[in-house]
């Protein structure tokens, strides 16, 4: 995997290739597989996201009882056409909640890059496909873009809450989704990288503070934040706005912020929302029950 | 790590480390045992113990021991499935020395009485490390085809194994050797680039000084 978005963009320019093609070529080289195989595997991931979205069960609660049914609520609200954000963003939020809840309810999802942040990328991509009618092949290309960005983040920094807080999970997912969304709307490699950077910048410092240590509160709803920020960042990139801090340096900043983050807000369930009186009460209730 | 670790795996939630990683550890234990698991003692350490129930770590481990993969929808129902298939298991806590927070010790036995003891850790994103086999140290991911050789700690064992692999056209990617004491029991953990040809394990096992060979290929 590439260790630098700058290098990835240079490669795209030098070889007159699209961002996703550079990522795919790297995958084929690394795993010694033909393009067709790589593409089929990535497409399977996209189809699995679609299936996971479609199989949301609005009646389920998680085993802990902390999460569930909010995706259904959001769907009914969006259907009434009353959202402040409009129908498209409403769908995005609905899908992010649904995927996060499906994950909490032990249903099948696609980690992207993690299970906790699994709602961000599909919420953005599935809603865009439903609205604009892109083919599954175009969506697979967009998924390569997301994977390429995530790969750089994983190489330069980290993608786990235990190592870098929620900015490493939802922040990374948002960065990946921003690049993928910009790509679908025709952004070149540089704009993709800057979209990714702007999403990450907006989520820098986000802590990982799950109540009772479970991937539920606040994880499910943070998927909404990641998806919405991703689209805003993609729109900024498409408007020609560039990150003043180069994308690779933004990722490096995420790494150093994560390293400096206290352990109590790195997935230990000991700080932040987990340490509030209500968070503690929920934890006590669950450990006794 | 490759891009399908970034987009993927397809898995049953809620946690890549506490659910998918746990299922994978169970699966690896099953493969290492080489026969269906009849009984299992599952000892959870650290965060696996503290948050395992809410994450379905317990169900995922049992699912893995039954051979279910990380994306199998039956993971939440694995306790019931174990009962149906006649696999006994008990789950409890343990404190392991110098272990990763997401660690588990497994003691499994097959119908024929084959036993295996394993300490493994789930290190994030569904990826795992095997840290101990049958009380001997180890350190491998089970991502590449892996040959685990138990042998007597005496001169010449390593060369016998490596030359067998070499003449079978199998390239060694990484290799670790550990032993309990000088002249005692030793283990070689060899990650290889190619799958082992048929019969290779049997020939390795016939070599003098070699006690047991396990071949692990998760694909």
Q: Any idea what the shape of chain A is?
A: globular
In this structure, how is the largest beta sheet of chain B organized? 6 strands, mixed
Instruction: Tell me the series of helices and strands of chain B, N- to C-terminal.
Output: HEHEHHHEEEEEEHEEHE
Count of domains of chain A: 1
Order of helices and strands of chain A: HHHHHEHHHHHHHH
Largest interface: A-B, 50 and 35 residues
Over all CA atoms, what is the radius of gyration of chain B? 17 Å
Strand line-up of the largest beta sheet of chain B: 3-2-4-5-6-7
Return the structural class of chain B: alpha+beta
CATH topology of chain A: 2-methylcitrate dehydratase PrpD
CATH architecture of chain A: Orthogonal Bundle
Question: Roughly what is the average pLDDT of chain A, rounded to an integer?
Answer: 97
The helix content of chain B is 25-40%
Low-confidence stretches of chain A: none
Q: What structural class should be given to the helix and strand makeup of chain A? A: mainly alpha
Give the terminus-to-terminus CA distance of chain A.
45 Å
CATH homologous superfamily caption of the largest domain in chain B: D-3-phosphoglycerate dehydrogenase, domain 3
How many beta strands in the DSSP annotation of chain B?
11
Radius of gyration of chain A: 18 Å
**Distinct helical segment count of chain A:** 13
Number of strands of chain A: 1
